[in-house]
Design brief:
globular, alpha/beta, 9 helices
């Protein structure tokens, strides 16, 4: 029985526990550039981060009351290279879900914050405060939310009461946390998630949710 659900009366029905793992370091993240649909591989440090996350999740898997049943990943290389060692230590395969890919940053792909702001100052300023605004030729956070929440709903139907790992990117992970917290769009702009960090959310069948952990990187030390 989940202790998080006991005080809400949901304890008799186990939640689906979602372990949200951000991908490790890539060359674009080193340079702090917008990295959406581009497909860089992990750096050496990123591969080390993925291995450390895999070891930590394997330990959690052994100790948990609900062992990890699936590893689901964004299709992008940096996410898959993070997911593969996790799946390997758990003896599982990697299931790819295209809906968990990062935001399409359009013409800002590969640019720094300053470069994008200088190229499209008005759009960039509006985008920073409005989740309905899209980068030029790109995708708004509201559009990303539509596909990410559809993927999450499918996951909750497929794995009721079980534990799964989702390996994805900053925006999809923030959106899942936002849904669990029933928070407004401002959360997307105020929450920081480190590379290869772990966040944990539980979802009950009645629609309730509990955020158990956010941005844990203790296993990278």
């Amino acid at each position: 029985m989940s202790t998080a659900g006991s005080w809400t009366g949901r304890g008799s029905t186990p939640p689906t526990r979602v372990l949200l793992l951000r991908h490790g370091q890539s060359p674009l993240s080193v340079e702090r550039r917008y990295s959406g649909r581009g497909n860089p591989e992990l750096t050496r440090e990123g591969l080390e981060q993925a291995a450390a996350a895999a070891t930590a999740l394997a330990a959690r898997h052994v100790a948990a009351d609900s062992p990890i049943r699936a590893v689901i990943s964004s299709p992008l290389m940096r996410a898959r290279q993070t997911a593969e060692p996790v799946a390997g230590v758990l003896g599982l395969g990697v299931t790819v879900d295209d809906r968990l890919t990062e935001t399409d940053f359009g013409t800002w792909e590969g640019l720094t914050f300053a470069e994008a702001s200088a190229r499209d100052p008005e759009v960039h300023r509006a985008w920073l405060g409005d989740s309905a605004v899209s980068p030029p030729q790109g995708e708004s956070f509201d559009l990303v939310a539509g596909r990410v929440y559809a993927a999450l709903d499918d996951l909750l139907r497929r794995f009721p009461g079980q534990t799964v790992v989702v390996v994805s990117h900053v925006t999809p992970i923030k959106l899942i946390l936002r849904r669990a917290l029933d928070a407004g769009p401002a959360m997307l702009y105020r929450l920081h998630l480190d590379l290869a960090c772990l966040s944990v959310v539980e979802f009950w069948p009645d629609g309730g949710a509990s955020v158990r952990l956010v941005n844990d990187t203790s296993y990278l030390a």
